[in-house]
Known about the structure:
- The chain is mainly α.
- The chain is 65% helix and 0% strand.
- Helix 1 crosses helix 3 and helix 3 packs antiparallel against helix 4 (43-87).
- The longest helix is centred in the middle third of the chain and has 45 residues, at 43-87.
- The chain is rod-shaped.
- The model has no long low-confidence stretch (mean pLDDT 85).
Amino acid sequence: MREVEEKFYKEFPNLRGNRAVEAFLRKPEHQEMLKEFVDSPSQTRKEHLDHAFKVYYFGLRFTSYLNTSLYFQSVNYDKRMRRFAQHNALTLDQSVGDEDGTTFKDQLLNEGEILYMESPTSLKDCIEDERLLEAYFLLTDKQREVLDMAYLLELKDTEIAKRMNTSQQAVSKSRKKALKKLRCLLTNG
């Protein structure tokens, strides 16, 4: 096969050393076409060999284009994601401002440390103001229960009415009356 290539390169010396041509000639089907052309040159065989090379070369260029496009797309995607992450840093990921580069997240619980919080069962567990707590205890049991369900469990009046087996209007009236009583007790003492 080496002799066939040498004859080919004698006729086309400017193609010697061309990596695309050399890669093309490594394929057995292309070597066969080259051998036929060199053994009995004709315009048809030359055109056939030329067409096969054009198809092969187009495949090389297209593959190279895809590789380059994918590379630059991935680089640009990475840049966009980094820029987005910088502009939209989570509050916990922001620096505290010390020299160590400590973040708010670093100041939270250590790994393996678990924090258990009990869910409050009544608004009395959530109220810290003494006056408000005293006013809360001056409400009726029904009013306290309605406020607990409305503001602690975040239920709507219709849901509270179903739980208390009463009408939605009665729940709404009880809630408004309780809030008015709290307001009066806090403002008037």
